[in-house]
Amino acid sequence: MNKFIEDTSNYLKEKGFESPEVGIILGTGLGQLLKHVEIIKEVSYNHIPNFPTATVEFHKGKLIYGILEGKKVIVMQGRFHLYEGYTLQDVAYPVRIMKQLGITTLLVSNASGAINLDYKKGELMLIEDHINLQGGSPLAFKGVEHLGERFVDMSAPYDAALNTHFESIALKNNITLHKGVYVSVVGPQLETRAEYKMLKLMGADAVGMSTVPEIIVANHLKLKVAAVSVLTDECDPENLKPIDITEIIEMATKAEPDMITLFKELIKKIA
Question: Right CATH number for 2-269 from 3.40.50.10770, 3.10.450.50, 3.40.50.1580, 2.40.30.110?
């Protein structure tokens, strides 16, 4: 994998991706942050050596380099998922590239369903911890010890200082920001009533199909990382209605201004 990482990174450096400080992974319906980025370079995923290609229709598939709030950032406009047929190593590969290019902080967004029924669709949840139900680990491959410590500590995978900043920004800007546990499943099918009941018993507050592989690899690489979920639907097993993907996108769009405020203000505070 070292050779792949080197080739990909060198290609992007040649394209002008120079010493980014912050990496950002944009989730479902959260592309408007790019309107606030002074874009210097952008490259389609399918032009980048060894890079996966986004296949989900509402994930654009571009890697963007620019300036946001005075910081050099690298932004993934669209991410990869296990349900697209990729491996966990593929899904998290961009995190390794962003680290190789120079980032020290990774910010992640996603869309998820609210299992905690005190949380409502259109609101945001700061991820404090997670449960990995994706059936594997992005670190489970031969040679992983050459890229970082094999047995990565996950007692506190989300950076406490970044989370504290997010909370203070939310309070100052009157943004509802819940805190909770995110559970990542494979998908792409949504959960059954029995599965929602199980996930609630396990201690999950929200469920989605992404994020955890990237967080694990970020910890492997000793990056500071934080993640925020947009709650796009309410997963009440006693009142479960057929899912409407259009409504999920609408809820993500509704919450987008608050997410943009959180990310922009946090980046201002990053030293």
Answer: 3.40.50.1580
